[in-house]
Amino acid sequence: MRAPDSADAPQSLWQQTAGQAPAAPALAASLQCDVVIVGAGITGLSTALHLSELGLRVCVLDAQEPGWGASGRNGGQVIPGIKHDPKAILARYGKALGEPLLQMVASASDAVFELIERHAIACHAMRAGWIQPAHSPRALETVSDRAQQWLDRGAAVEMLNKDAVSARLGTDRFLGGWIDRRAGSIQPLSYTRGLVAAAQAAGASVHGHTRVTALERSGQQWLARTEQGVTVRAEHALIATNGYTNGLWPGLQRSVIAANSFIVATGPLDPKACGHIMPGGVVASDSRRLLLYFRRDHEGRFVLGGRGHFADPASEQDWDHLVRGARMLFPELARIPFTYRWAGRIALTRDFVPHVHQPSPNLHILLGYNGRGVALATQMGRYLARTIAAGEPMPYPVTPIRPLPFHGLKRFYIALGVAYYGLCDKLS
pTM for the whole thing? Predict the structure, then answer.
């Protein structure tokens, strides 16, 4: 099995069930627009859609087809918020910046489902909530405090005891947890392709198989030079490549760790034998540092993901740890084959929050969603469009690009981190 990072990669489950892709041909001739966007994932497409609706001329370029990266290969969970709890965000950024930031991330899942409804995106959307179950007494204290913080802010959340978690998930492996009813699920590639169609309908130009090889400033314009030799000129530029960021802009690739998230899935489960597994359509990701995330899809398959090794997968054995994890949580899956295996790269930041950069006039960079890209990328693209079109300030700190020291040792970083966090999970 070839690595899913190659051009002729094996299809994921989502690619096999997403239906026809909107036309996104390679760019054939040079053009002038208001905003050029590098990356046709959720960030770039959400930004393009909202900019086009505000009347700007937008051109989106991608080295592969739109949604080819993690935007089309993720677990399909739509979760509001970021990795840090409200109190930590307010302590870090202060009330003046922290409150607008929290309002933005708290409504991130709303942004997704509103777009789906407004543009009639057929992506099997379901909003039954997200559960974070606790695997240990200490984790139960942590998630209880987290739930209370969001409850104090008026969020639709609730603590669940062990029996309630077991009933909703179909496993007795957890001690309790909390449910966030703002969350839900989608078929991610269908959602991404729906954003393509919506952006095109609003007037955006979207082009796949058009690799940008250089991004240069010329007077008051940005020039995006492509592998085909054609150039896009624009007043504004956005780099939206996240886990597939390369050396297009100095230091950017070295400011994040591009880590693989591995996913496995069964075929549709027998309702009589396995109907008790996540029967209500909720999604879940547990409280471990090396977490597992799981759900049932629209056709009844069981889908589970988690961290894998740094290298792109090369054989089916590279996913075996996830199959074992799934069968540990749900022993009834022991005899059921996991038919699908795939992976996609997420961008991890050192502080576990997304990064917004503006390293040059009218150059914008959004990346580093740390595994919560469906909701956050949609929402941040929406807000960035307002910044570009109307000058509204982003309710998010703009920071310099800070390359990680010894970034070339990132394989060692990840291996060491996996070992450390695995030990912490065992001890807890």
Answer: 0.93
